[in-house]
Amino acid sequence: MRIANYWWISGLLPHTTDTKSIFFKDCFLHFCKVSEYKATMNVEHEVQLLVEEIKRLGAPNSDGLIATTFGVLFHDDRCANIFEALVGTLRAAKRKKIVKYDGELLLQGVHDKVEVVLLKEY
After folding, report:
1. What positions does the domain Costars occupy (predicted)?
2. From the centroid of its chain, how far is CA 98?
């Protein structure tokens, strides 16, 4: 909806009562809502896939939680084929308190030994 408001404020969407213009505005707003919904659904789906991959690659740590390292996730061929942006998916999962790791941003090479812990099922 924010995108539509930008277009409306900038004058790129018509302000007339013409039926074609109203139809165009309604179609545009619907497209924005559908696009935002699809983006949300893809993130949730990718987080779910991440949980499955952590289970596959990880092992129980001293606390009994499944854990793996960022390097193992990053260098795994299957993960490379599934995730377009592994770091973004990890950040989304961390925001939802599904995984835990030290730091804000994980970089390949530098953070390969950082432990990624699965906190709960998704």
Report:
1. 41-119
2. 13
- What pLDDT is stored for residue 93 in this prediction? 96
* pLDDT(77) > 80: yes
Among the listed residues 75, 62, 66, 60, the one whose alpha carbon sits nearest the alpha carbon of residue 112: 75
- Nearest in space to 112 (alpha carbons), one of 83, 76, 73, 56: 73
Residues 6+ apart with CB under 8 A from 46: 82, 83, 89, 92
CATH topology of domain 2-118: Arc Repressor Mutant, subunit A (1.10.10)
Sign of dihedral through CA atoms 2, 83, 113, 66?
A: positive
Nearest to 83 by CA among 75, 58, 114: 75
Say which DSSP state 111 is in: T
What's the pLDDT score for residue 115? 97
The pLDDT tens digits of the residues spanning 30-46 come to 555 545 545 555 889 99
57 neighbors 68 (Cβ within 8 angstroms): yes
Give every CB contact of residue 97 below 8 A, 6+ residues apart in sequence: 119, 120
How many residues are recorded in the chain?
Answer: 122
